């Protein structure tokens, strides 16, 4: 059951119009929240944090619904207070109970990734976007992007290579700031109340709670925001190596052997490349595949080698005439 369906079910429960089976489902879940504390222990910290945000969103939706109502009968208030109190308790604990609760809040499509000890960790999202999560940073994202917008949340620092999809904007929530792109590469660094956005390719817009207008950033531009301050410092940067450290963002090759190029492609995109004719592995290639998707990378390669390719899951089959 999705979040919206659960909210609708709770609304029916409050109005006293749900079926006996629906009423039993809600009350059994509420009772499990309040009484069976042992069930809480089976969930990971990532699931607890993910659920906390979903519960808070659900309660906000419920509050909005009830604010718009003119009259709430007393018995419905009792039911609402019971629901709100138990949900508030669950949020305070940071978790929920039972398989029904897991299905209600759709945690199967919610993932929380945490890096530690200063190690850069790569994440490939369902749309093909690559995120390099740095240091002790946290990234929250869905297993699949099902809505019009592709939205993630970041706390810390990450380098983004966003897959191009004009019909589905990519939005990053970081502190009180929102970064919106269509397909580009950039770095976000948030330390305390300070957030820094550096653009490598494409165009990025950044807005904050106190910002009167979104700020547009182009390649080689950098913006620094201070939470609670409406002023923004925008400048040109000249050295981006510090932002690329620990990532495989740079895919620029000059007279490089095909074997080495394919090895880097395999490492970056987590794929296995199968070559029909091993002779092409000795070909020397000069090309820049930086900020290109897996599909685009092989399109460019095949143009140089007069070849063709096929992507099947995590395997790429490459056929080419060679470089002679």
UniProtKB/TrEMBL annotation:
Keywords carried by this UniProt record: Membrane, Transmembrane, Transmembrane helix
Regions that span the bilayer: 80-98
A molecular-function term among this protein's GO annotations: sigma factor antagonist activity
InterPro entries named among the record's database cross-references: FecR (IPR006860), FecR_C (IPR032508), Ferrdict_sens_TM (IPR012373)
Residues of the FecR protein domain: 114-204
Residue stretches making up the Protein FecR C-terminal domain: 251-317
Domain of life of the source: Bacteria
Protein name: Ferric-dicitrate binding protein FerR, regulates iron transport through sigma-19
Species lineage: Bacteria, Pseudomonadati, Bacteroidota, Cytophagia, Cytophagales
């Amino acid at each position: 059951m999705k979040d919206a369906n659960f909210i609708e079910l709770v609304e029916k429960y409050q109005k006293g119009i749900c079926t006996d089976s629906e009423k039993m489902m809600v009350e059994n879940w509420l009772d499990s929240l309040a009484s069976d504390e042992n069930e809480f222990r089976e969930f990971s910290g990532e699931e607890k944090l993910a659920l906390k945000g979903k519960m808070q969103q659900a309660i906000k939706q419920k509050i909005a619904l009830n604010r718009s109502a003119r009259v709430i009968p007393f018995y419905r208030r009792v039911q609402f207070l019971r629901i709100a109190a138990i949900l508030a308790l669950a949020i305070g604990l940071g978790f929920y109970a039972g398989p029904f609760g897991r299905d209600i809040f759709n945690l199967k499509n919610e993932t929380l990734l945490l890096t530690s000890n200063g190690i850069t960790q790569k994440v490939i999202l369902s749309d093909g976007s690559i995120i390099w999560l740095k240091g002790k940073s946290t990234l929250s994202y869905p297993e699949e992007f099902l809505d019009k917008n592709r939205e993630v949340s970041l706390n810390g620092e990450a380098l983004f290579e966003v897959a191009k999809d004009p019909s589905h904007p990519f939005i990053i929530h970081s502190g009180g700031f929102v970064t919106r792109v269509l397909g580009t590469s950039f770095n976000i660094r948030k330390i305390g109340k300070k957030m820094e956005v550096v653009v490598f390719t494409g165009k990025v817009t950044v807005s904050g709670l106190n910002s009167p207008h979104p700020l547009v950033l182009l390649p080689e531009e950098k913006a620094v925001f201070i939470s609670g301050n409406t002023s923004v410092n925008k400048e040109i940067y000249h050295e981006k190596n510090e932002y690329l450290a620990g990532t495989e963002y740079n895919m620029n090759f000059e007279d490089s052997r095909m074997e080495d190029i394919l090895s880097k492609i395999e490492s970056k995109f987590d794929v296995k490349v199968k070559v029909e004719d091993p002779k092409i592995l000795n070909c020397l290639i000069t090309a820049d595949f930086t900020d290109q998707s897996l599909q685009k990378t092989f399109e460019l390669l095949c143009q140089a080698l007069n070849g063709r390719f096929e992507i099947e899951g995590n395997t790429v089959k490459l056929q080419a005439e060679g470089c002679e």
